[in-house]
Model the fold of this input.
Amino acid sequence: MDRPYFREIFNPKLRNAIFVEGLPGFGNVGKIAARLLIKSTRAEVFAELYSPSFPDYVIVDKDGICRPPRYEFCAATIGTTDFIILTGDAQPSLEDLKAHYMLCDEILGFAEEHDAKFFVTMGGMPTPKPTEEVYVAATSPKLAAETVKKGATLYGRGRIMGATGLLLGLAKSRGLRGICLLGATTGLKADRRAASSVFRFLLKTLGVKTPKHVPREKEES
Done:
């Protein structure tokens, strides 16, 4: 395998889908928020992405079965809104710039093939003291202002590392619309509180009713 490889499990019928990314990162905020969304919507994995740029280890389950690191694409519907939710085991090394660009480009192309029209990335924002604030960056001033009116704090004059930032930047270069939601976290450990704030704000800003069966935060890691 010398380039990213998609394994498609089934082909979901999606229309005007909202693409939501939550991968491992600062405080694991994005990944935990994505898992909350997956569990609360009972989303189904419809595709997996493997890459030679992922770390050189395997993941072993409780039955002793091993597999390489991967990204998972899940399909879900809340009301009349379709979602594609991306999460995964790890990101490439920060030094491997080419891998980050290649993976994000492949992901955006795959998402567009499945009729994704709006993109949301999620992650953590470093802060010395934990708060429940959610920060936003966007592909346009209008989107940023609209999200701030809903209760977010504008994230300005900074950087957003990894796929959480790059996916949004490359989406904009493709003429796509989207926002990045960042939960304030110290990043010293997996921050379930910040992830829950991002998850609930995500549903609020999209105008989606919070599902009744939202899992408790302690179920996530």
Observations:
- The chain has one domain: 5-208.
- The mean pLDDT is 92.
- The radius of gyration is 16 Å.
